[in-house]
Structure formats: C-alpha cells, structure tokens
From TrEMBL:
The keyword Cell membrane does not apply. Residues 21-288, 358-661 form the Protein kinase domain. GO terms for biological process: cell surface receptor signaling pathway. SUPFAM superfamilies: Protein kinase-like (PK-like). The keyword Repressor does not apply. Keywords: ATP-binding, Kinase, Nucleotide-binding, Serine/threonine-protein kinase, Transferase. This is Protein kinase domain-containing protein. GO terms for molecular function: ATP binding; protein serine/threonine kinase activity. Pfam families: PK_Tyr_Ser-Thr.
Length: 683
C-alpha cells in the first residue's frame, strides 16, 4: 500500500473530554500515561485516546504524530488525530477490541491455536516490513524502536495491529543513526542498540524474535532468573519440545514449532550481515503457516528454513513469475500504468487465492462480470475476493484498478488489499464488510434509528464528494445504489464496485488546485475532445441522481422497488399532500423525526430532478453532504429540546469548492448555449 499523509484532525481539549465522556472509561495504563475508550460523535466510531504524562516533551510528541500519520497499512493501528493542550498531550487512534497481545498471552486463558498465533506473527511482520521499506516518504524508512507484545493490538479476528510509535525514528535515506539516549523496554531491546545506541531496522527484527518465542511458549522472555533466549540456545530434542505451550504442542505441530524457534533465533543473531530482514521473515512465516496446514495430511521431513540462504533467489523468481502472469496487460501500452499501480498492493498467485478462500467454498454473491467469495489472509484478516469470471472482463478489471489507485485514503471507500494478475484468475482482494450491503440491511428486520440512517447517508455522500474532487482526479462512480454501499461493523458505510462504470477525468493532482478545480483545468476540459469526458460527466450526474434514490430508500426502507419507481412514488406523495409522510418507514416517524424526514425527502427529489430546465437545481455532492449534516444537527437539537422547532425550509448551503459539474456537463454537450453572457459557474 502506498504511503501518504493521512488527513489529521487536531482536537481541542474540550473535544477530547467530550468524546471520552470526561475520561470515563479507562482501558489501559502504562509508563506513558493512560488510555481511554471514546466515541467520535459525528461517526459513532469507537476510538482509543492516549493521554500522555510527558507534556514537557512536545517536540518528541509531534515527531510521533508526524511518523504515525504517514502510515496506512492494515496491520498498523490507524491514526485519527491529536491534541496539544495546555497541560496534556493526547493521541486519538482506532479502537482495537481485543486489547494487546501481552494481556492475551500472559494474563488470560484465551485459547489461541497455533495457526492463529502464526497469523498474529505474520501481521506484525508485514507491518514492520512495510515500515522498513523506503517508501513512507522520500527515501525514508521507519524504525519502530519498541516492538513487544504490549504494543501489538488484536482485533476480533486476532489480526495484529502494531501500535505506539513514541520511540519510532524516521531514518532518512535508510542511513543508520545513533541515539544519544537509549530508551525502551530492556527485556525486548536489541543489545546492539542498548550498548551502542545504533538505530537500524535490525533493532526491530531482534525484538520481533523475542515476540516469536513468547508466542510459542506463552511465557515472558524474562521471569525471575529465567531467560527464554538462553534456554532456547541450549535446548534440543525433547528438552526443546517441553518449552512449548502444551495447548499447541502435539505430533502434528512439533516440526512447525521447531522451525518457528529456528526463525526466531535467526532474528536474535547479533551478526547483522547474516540476520534476516523483515520482508524475508514475513515471507517465511507465510510458508510456515501453509506448511502447518499441509502437515495435517503429509509428513514433511525437510526444514522450511533450510532454504534460508536462497531467499534472495526466491525473490527474483517471484518477480519473474509476476512479470509472466501480468504479461497479457503489457500488450497494450496504455495498461503500463495499472501494472505500476498494482505494485503498491500485494499480488496474489492463483494458488494463494484458492488457499485463502478455501477453494472458493464460501460465495458471498455472484453474477456478471464477477463473483465474490469470503476469505482469510495468513495474518487472520477476513477479506472479500472479487473474482472476475473470464478474460473478457479485463477492461473492467483494469478500469477498477486505475480508479482505486487514485483513492489514497478514505474511510468510507472500500480498501483494496491485493490483486491477482494471472490471466485466468483476475481478482481483487478487498477488506471485508461484515454486515453486507445497505440493500441487505434495508430488507432485514434490524432496527435502524433515524440518526443511524442519517449517518450512513452523510458518510456515503462524503465519499462521493471525495470522488468528485481534484484529490482523486474527479471520479464518477456511475453505479451508486443500496447494493454498492457496504456496511462495516458499527454500520460504517463503505462505497464499493469501481469496475466497469467508474471513470476519472485526469490523474489526481494534474492541473488541479488543492481546494477545487481551477480555471486551467476547466479550459483543458473545454478545449479537449468533449467525448473523452462524456462518460465521466454523465457519471457525475448519475451519482447525484442515484444517491437521491439511496436517500429515498433509507427513509422509506423500500428495497423491492427500483429507485426510478421510488422517485415517482415520492414525487406523487409530495404533489398530493405536500409531504412524503405516506412513504416514510413507520419505524422512524416519531413526531420529532418528521421534520428531518421531510427535509431528507425534498433533498432526495432535488437530486433526482429530470426536467432539463430544472436540472440546474440539482445539488453537487458537496452541497448534499453539507445539507445532510445540517439536517442531522437540527434533528439532534429538536430531540434534545434545546431549541424551538426548525421549519422545513432548506438552509442555504455554502458555496461549493468544486464547480457545478452537472452545469459543466450541459455546457459541453449542448444542453445550454455557450456564450460570453452564459459563463460556467465555478463556485
């Protein structure tokens, strides 16, 4: 996954107190300070709030913010924001429900099978490999500096999330640095760092070796006079096997456990030249997990680590295989870009896809041009695999890849985790949305309060606003519907299905200003062949129109009527009664909700205007998102009875930063006469 600066929120102290309910729920405590559970009010997202004791070290704190905010990886805890108050330094990150590995291993009796433990190790190794590769900023890499079980968090699927970057350092150019003062957890610290202050990625490799030992023994590296490292250096045969956690040690796992220890001891070597790098370690762990599964049926006498010195050769072979499998793309020079973009995500082989989907045993949905399957990666991450049915789908596959490559980071757009480029197995691997689609939820019996429906609508509108912005190169999705809005845990919406219809005007950042589409880009669009942009601009119109249909589905809970017919029914209701009440879902028609529902209905009908003369009144997605946020604020005020009743009139939205793209489309394709007196609106 490519590196980028995430959007960083700076919170005030009052906001931190509000989202933690005045620091009401303590979930962790350490030498750095305390961790509290919180809720982001606008999103209902659970967060972890770290309040640090070290308020006199603001420079170091801001360095931590700088480093953590650059990372975007599924195995790194997501950074959300920070607060620099008068007396406190506070970090806000995603909430990871199962807590940390140290507590799971040493302070609980939670059963953890060996394959799950290997998955935890793989996730941590992948995060470190990502940090150690020189791509997070210009010629830089990151040394975490404090890898230990307490800094490895686990989600509900036991997927590892590396956390706590307070001791991390950015190594410019990958050049070794020396610390004037060595700080860290002594039990897990690389002796080279401890005695010389030398900061290199090898420090993390050493610490990770200790984590591996604790994973297979369920014992701390140091307890009293016992030191796991020294014991494993001397142990052999039955003596070695007695060290393993008995709950995972049996005749089918002994070989794998011994090879994990062998890999751990390789990580603990003090000879830097002969020690493995993290990218090699994570590859070897994936092989060990595959081997563990195979050994249930076939006995293997050869050590997986016997090929340790051929790792570099294997890397070259894998690269050659990738070139071969992706060769059919190279026949067309225009597809060279997608090959380079795919280098930012993991490339899976056909065999790996069969493995992670258990031979495609759990199909989520199917149709043309692709089928979806549930799968699980080696690091325990649950995923959705979209497998295209034939090579005739190549164009849709390439298009989807290009579009997704422009979307650097957005919470409410499905995340691409990998792809398969083999000609007969074109596939995308996405994060898994466990609640299914909005269409599924609307057709279920699950209770959906109005505020939750508003949140789904707002976040989906914001995702479309983001797609329509210069940040992405102006992407028209083209297939917005209740079935293409997936819902993650806690009902977080994720916009998906970018293959086929989705199109973009220009590469992100190309002649586009940071705050909007500037006049240079507009002139380029007008002076170029309009047909080149026809699909994009039609999709932008379509996105607004189809989102109106999604909004009507949310307030009516109708999932069996196509949105065209639903629009007609709502229009008739408003024409007859000047109200949409007859169409509203009866579960959300409490008196305090009616005003908000009426406003949402009218906004949806503005989005779906079809009359040529009236289409100029269609809002942009930015205006839609702003209006929905205003409706939600007013709804909350009405519910709390802190203000008088708000009327149905629609507030004037702020001037959009982007031009009114539907109006631009009409200029391009002759719906309105172009003249000096009829200029393009740009805000």
């Amino acid at each position: 996954m490519g590196a980028m600066w995430q959007k960083v929120t700076r919170f005030t102290e009052d906001e931190i107190e509000a989202l933690t309910n005045n620091y009401g729920t303590l979930i962790g405590k350490g030498g750095y300070g305390e961790v509290y559970k919180g809720i982001l009010d606008d999103h209902y997202d659970l967060v972890a709030v770290k309040r640090y004791i070290r308020e006199n070290l603001r420079k170091e704190f801001m360095e931590e913010v700088s480093i953590h905010s650059q990372m975007n990886h599924k195995n790194v805890v997501k950074f959300i924001g920070y607060c620099v108050g008068e007396s406190t330094l506070t970090l806000v990150t995603e909430y990871v429900p199962k807590g940390n590995l140290d507590d799971i291993l040493h302070n609980s009796d939670t059963a953890i099978p060996l394959d799950i433990r290997l998955g935890i190790a793989i996730g941590c190794a992948e995060a470190l490999s990502y940090m150690h590769s020189m791509h997070l900023s210009i010629d830089s890499l990151i040394c975490h500096g404090d890898i230990k079980p307490a800094n490895i968090l686990l989600d509900d699927n036991f997927t590892a999330k590396v956390s706590d970057f307070g001791l991390s350092r950015l190594l410019l150019g990958g050049i070794t640095q020396y610390a004037s003062k060595v700080i860290g957890s002594i039990d897990y610290m690389d002796p080279v760092l401890m005695h010389t202050g030398r900061l290199t990625p090898r420090n993390d490799v050493y610490s990770f070796g200790i984590v591996l030992l604790e994973l297979v023994t369920r014992k701390r590296v140091k307890q009293g006079d016992m030191n796991l490292i020294g014991i494993f250096e001397c142990a052999k045969g039955k003596g070695l096997r007695k060290l393993f956690d008995e709950s995972i040690a049996n005749k089918n796992t002994f070989k794998t456990l011994e090879e994990i220890v062998e890999l751990a001891m390789a990580c603990l070597r003090l000879d830097i030249k002969n020690g493995p790098e993290m990218n090699h370690v994570q590859k070897c762990l994936r092989v060990l997990k595959r081997d563990l599964k195979c050994r249930q049926e076939h006995a293997s006498s050869q050590s997986i680590l016997s090929t340790h010195h051929s790792w570099h050769t294997k890397d070259k072979q894998e690269s050659a295989q990738l070139n071969k499998s992706g060769s059919f793309f190279r026949r067309n020079a225009s597809n060279v870009k997608i090959i380079s973009e795919f280098s930012n995500v993991r490339t899976f082989t056909k065999a790996e896809l069969k493995e992670i989907t258990d031979n495609y045993s759990d199909m989520l949905s199917g149709g043309m041009p692709a089928k979806f399957y549930k799968g699980r990666l080696e690091d325990n991450t649950v995923v959705a695999v979209r497998k295209f049915r034939d090579t005739a789908s190549q164009e849709a596959f390439i298009n989807g890849g290009i579009v997704l490559s422009q979307i650097a980071h957005k919470n409410n757009i499905i995340k691409l985790l990998g792809c398969c480029l083999e000609a007969e197995t074109l596939a995308f691997i996405y994060e898994y949305a466990d609640k299914g689609s909005l269409l599924d939820i609307l057709g279920s019996q699950e209770y959906l309060p109005l505020d939750l429906r508003l949140r789904i609508a707002i976040k989906t509108a914001e995702a479309l606003q983001y797609l329509h912005s210069p940040a992405t190169g102006i992407i028209g999705h083209g297939s917005v519907s209740a079935s293409t809005v997936l819902l993650h845990d806690n009902f977080v919406p994720k916009l998906t299905d970018f293959s086929g219809a989705s199109k973009l005007i220009v590469d992100s950042g190309s002649n586009a200003g940071d705050s909007g589409i500037n006049s240079v880009l507009l002139e380029k669009v007008l002076d170029s062949d309009p047909s080149r942009y026809k699909t994009v601009l039609m999709n932008l119109e379509s996105d607004v129109y189809r989102f109106g249909g999604v909004l009507l589905s949310l307030i009516s809970r109708e999932n069996n009527i196509c949105f065209d017919d639903l629009t007609v029914e709502f229009t008739k209701a408003y024409q007859k009664d000047n109200s949409g009440k007859a169409m509203f879902d009866k579960d959300i028609t409490a008196e305090q909700d009616i005003a908000a529902l009426e406003e949402m209905g009218r906004l949806a009908l503005r989005c779906t205007i079809l009359n040529a003369d009236g289409m100029v009144m269609r809002p942009t997605m930015q205006e839609v998102a702003e209006e929905l946020r205003r409706i939600r604020r007013c709804c909350k005020l009405r519910t709390s009875e802190t203000t008088p009743h708000v009327t149905e009139t629609t507030a004037t939205a702020a001037a959009p930063l982007e031009p009114r793209l539907p109006n631009l489309m009409r200029h391009l394709f002759g719906y309105r006469r172009i003249s000096i007196t009829d200029p393009i609106r740009t805000g």
